[in-house]
Amino acid sequence: MECSEISIQEARAFKSLRASSKWMTNKELAATSNIADRTARSFTKKWVDLGIADLAEVSPGHRYRYSGMADRRNKAYLSRLIAALEIFEMN
């Protein structure tokens, strides 16, 4: 399930999701992260599967937010994402 590498695009998207105080659509996440919509969809699906993000199934457009339980659900991947922010100097 987990990819061995974290791209700069994933780090930017993670930073945007974690910094947001509201639920975000994929389109909003893409806009704030300067990535393609389909890339945002790929990341949010991955993060929900890994327990990093919470999903609200509403219409139109599902909403996502950083999970307050991310550190308990998948501490290893969360640590890698946070390390990527530091490496890419996005702290």
What does this structure look like?
About 25% of the residues are buried. Helix content is about 55%, strand content about 10%. The protein has five helices and two strands. The N and C termini lie far apart (about 25 Å). A two-stranded antiparallel ribbon has the order 1-2. The longest helix has 14 residues, at about 35-50. The protein has helices at about 10-20, 25-35, 35-50, 70-75, 75-85, and strands at about 55, 65. It has about 90 residues and is mainly α. It has a single domain (about 10-85), classed as Orthogonal Bundle (Arc Repressor Mutant, subunit A), CATH 1.10.10.
Question: What features would you highlight for this structure?
Answer:
91 residues, Arc Repressor Mutant, subunit A, mainly alpha, 5 helices
Could you say which structural class the secondary elements and strand pairing correspond to?
Answer: mainly alpha
Q: Determine the fraction of residues in helical runs and give it as a percent range.
A: 55-70%
Q: What is the highest CATH level, the class?
A: Mainly Alpha
| Number of domain units | 1
Poorly predicted regions: none
Give the overall shape, derived from the CA principal axes.
Answer: globular
Largest sheet: 2 strands, antiparallel
CATH topology: Arc Repressor Mutant, subunit A
- Our estimate of the beta-strand percent is 5-15%
The CATH superfamily is identified as: Winged helix-like DNA-binding domain superfamily/Winged helix DNA-binding domain
Helix-strand sequence: HHHEEHH
